[in-house]
């Protein structure tokens, strides 16, 4: 590793970035892949980031945009038509927690754009305008994706749907 | 209850541990292995292209030879000259009271929004809130979305044709939204984020406008262009997939109006039809306007880059690319514009023939 500090940064923040990737994709393998792809870009920009930037914020932003773009990408052959089957391997971290597995399965069922907006709004706590700015889209698009995500979750049921039903939450 | 939702999401991933024991080495390996993967892909795709070429040659018999692919053009540098942003054929005067900021990789340059003209290079990310963002692209930029979201798991979006525009001076441009559309209507309040894009395919430039429609229109009217890529349509030599999207009589794009073909013989006929049209539209006569409905034709091709390593083939594939051809319809100004360069007259008969090749003749 030729860039000072990059190895330390990755070692310290990699698990958190992978978890963020899992939320954005709903899939453990894709989430880790997303984190590594983003870190390759962070590595390339490391000199500037290390000196004056925020490498973690940069990496998360790259991950978010990549996950968002995957919903709008032209190369449809790169987008799985259906979410790939998730097999719980022996000792899989999710297997021990039924609720966690159900929540991730619900996330996986959402189209990528809806999942990204849902995570940014309700996990990252960003406002409609902040999400629109981060994704480079209109607030109307953010609203519609959030509404559809919540409608889909309510249709399929489960803990996420219950959370929306219990509360008087509207998308924004 | 947002906290409850967040806790559910947190709990869902709290037990996730990375599968990679040494992530630093994995990231470095991933960076290095890209090059190796492209070499392997080169062998596979070169073989595929060669076989495809044989098939096309066989099916076309003694027909015209396939022309070379549209040449790769480097993106233009962005300069600020005499109070204007200049890039490619475009000159965009900086509005009074606005300032120009240059983005850089890894930096988030916008601490304030509005009244900033942000110059974004291919390696940097932009800030998402600048009033005007001028972005150069390494590849021909994709026409602005015009996305009809069909929604649902497992369904792909259908991309309608972009809204065509001829900039002062004659450079073609493609818009995401009309200037008089509902989503760009003025007076939406501070919480609303305006967003429109103007793509200049020949110059490989995208201008993002985060202002309302009338302001966007005024900004576009101040642009001037000196196009350098008028002529017959520049088209890829080898196309793997061609996709045509046709609006219905009401101008609406739906799944029924989209057809994809992979048959090399039919693709050869499509390319031949496009090449037969040689009546070019000079810059001074170009007239495509937002009022016209349009067809969108996407031609997928392989893109190769010269190798810099003696251990690799002379050319390595950099992936796939779509060349877009947008055909504006109607009697007054029927034009076909290729994103790779070129603009020709394309009349109703040609449009009918094109639709027929895709099996969309009834639309």
UniProtKB/TrEMBL annotation, chain A:
| Taxonomic superkingdom | Bacteria
Where do the RNA polymerase sigma factor 70 region 4 type domain residues begin and end?
Answer: 103-152
- Which keywords annotate this record? DNA-binding, Sigma factor, Transcription, Transcription regulation
Q: Domain RNA polymerase sigma-70 region, which positions?
A: 10-76
InterPro entries cross-referenced by the UniProt entry:
RNA_pol_sigma-70-like (IPR039425), RNA_pol_sigma-70_dom (IPR014284), RNA_pol_sigma-E_actinobac (IPR014325), RNA_pol_sigma70_r2 (IPR007627), RNA_pol_sigma70_r4_t2 (IPR013249), RNA_pol_sigma_r2 (IPR013325), RNA_pol_sigma_r3/r4-like (IPR013324), WH-like_DNA-bd_sf (IPR036388)
A Pfam family (short name) is Sigma70_r2
Q: Which residues form the signal peptide?
A: none
Q: Does the keyword Transcription apply?
A: yes
PANTHER family per UniProt: ECF RNA POLYMERASE SIGMA FACTOR SIGM (PTHR43133:SF50), RNA POLYMERASE ECF-TYPE SIGMA FACTO (PTHR43133)
Family the UniProt entry places it in: Belongs to the sigma-70 factor family. ECF subfamily.
Q: What is this protein called?
A: SigE family RNA polymerase sigma factor
- Which taxonomic lineage is given here? Bacteria, Bacillati, Actinomycetota, Actinomycetes, Micromonosporales
Automatic annotation (TrEMBL), chain B:
Q: Enumerate the transmembrane spans.
A: 39-60
Entry annotated with the keyword Transmembrane: yes
Domain of life of the source: Bacteria
Keywords, A to Z, come to: Membrane, Transmembrane, Transmembrane helix
Q: Write down what this protein is called.
A: Uncharacterized protein
Organism, per UniProt? Paractinoplanes bogorensis
């Amino acid at each position: 590793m030729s860039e000072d500090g990059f190895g330390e940064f990755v070692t310290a923040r990699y698990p958190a970035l992978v978890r963020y990737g899992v939320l954005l994709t709903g899939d453990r393998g894709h989430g880790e892949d997303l984190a590594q792809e983003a870190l390759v870009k962070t590595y390339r920009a490391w000199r500037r980031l290390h000196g004056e930037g925020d490498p973690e914020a940069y990496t998360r932003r790259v991950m978010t945009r990549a996950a968002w773009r995957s919903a709008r990408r032209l190369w449809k052959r790169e987008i799985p038509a259906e979410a790939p089957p998730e097999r719980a391997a022996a000792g899989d971290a999710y297997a021990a927690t039924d609720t966690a597995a159900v929540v991730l399965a619900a996330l996986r069922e959402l189209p990528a754009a809806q999942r990204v907006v849902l995570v940014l709004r309700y996990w990252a706590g960003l406002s409609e305008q902040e999400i629109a700015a981060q994704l480079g889209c209109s607030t109307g698009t953010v609203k519609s994706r959030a509404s559809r995500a919540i409608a889909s979750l309510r249709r399929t049921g489960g803990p996420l749907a219950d959370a929306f039903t219990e509360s008087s939450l509207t998308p924004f | 209850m947002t906290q409850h939702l967040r806790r559910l999401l947190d709990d869902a991933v709290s037990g996730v541990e990375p599968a990679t024991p040494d992530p630093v080495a994995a990231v470095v390996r991933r960076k290095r292995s890209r090059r190796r993967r492209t070499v392997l892909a080169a062998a596979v795709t070169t073989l595929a292209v060669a076989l495809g070429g044989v098939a096309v040659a066989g099916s076309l018999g003694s027909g015209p030879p396939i022309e070379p692919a549209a040449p790769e053009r480097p993106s233009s540098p962005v300069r600020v000259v005499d109070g204007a942003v200049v890039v490619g054929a475009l000159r965009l005067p900086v509005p009074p009271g606005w300032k120009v900021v240059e983005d850089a990789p890894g930096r988030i340059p916008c601490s304030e929004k509005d009244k900033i003209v942000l110059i974004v290079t291919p390696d940097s990310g932009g800030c998402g809130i600048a009033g005007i963002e001028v972005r150069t692209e390494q590849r021909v930029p994709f026409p602005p979305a015009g996305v009809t979201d069909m929604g649902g798991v497992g369904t792909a979006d259908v991309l309608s044709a972009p809204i065509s525009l001829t900039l002062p001076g004659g450079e073609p441009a493609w818009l995401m939204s009309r200037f008089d559309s509902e989503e760009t209507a003025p007076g939406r309040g501070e919480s609303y984020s305006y967003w429109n894009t103007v793509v200049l395919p020949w110059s490989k430039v995208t201008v993002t406008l985060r202002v309302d429609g009338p302001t966007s229109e005024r900004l576009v009217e101040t642009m001037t262009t000196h196009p350098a890529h008028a002529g017959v349509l520049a088209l890829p030599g080898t196309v793997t997939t061609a996709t045509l999207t046709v609006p219905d009589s009401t101008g609406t794009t739906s799944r029924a109006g989209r057809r994809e073909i992979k048959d090399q013989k039919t693709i050869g006929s499509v390319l031949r039809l496009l090449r037969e049209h040689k009546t070019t539209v000079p810059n001074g006569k170009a007239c495509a306007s937002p009022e016209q409905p349009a067809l969108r034709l996407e031609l997928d091709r392989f893109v190769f880059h010269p190798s810099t390593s003696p251990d690799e083939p002379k050319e390595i594939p950099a992936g796939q690319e779509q060349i877009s051809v947008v055909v504006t319809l109607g009697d007054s100004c029927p034009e076909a514009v290729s994103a790779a360069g070129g603009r020709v007259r394309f009349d109703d008969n040609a449009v009918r023939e094109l639709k027929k090749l895709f099996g969309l003749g009834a639309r």
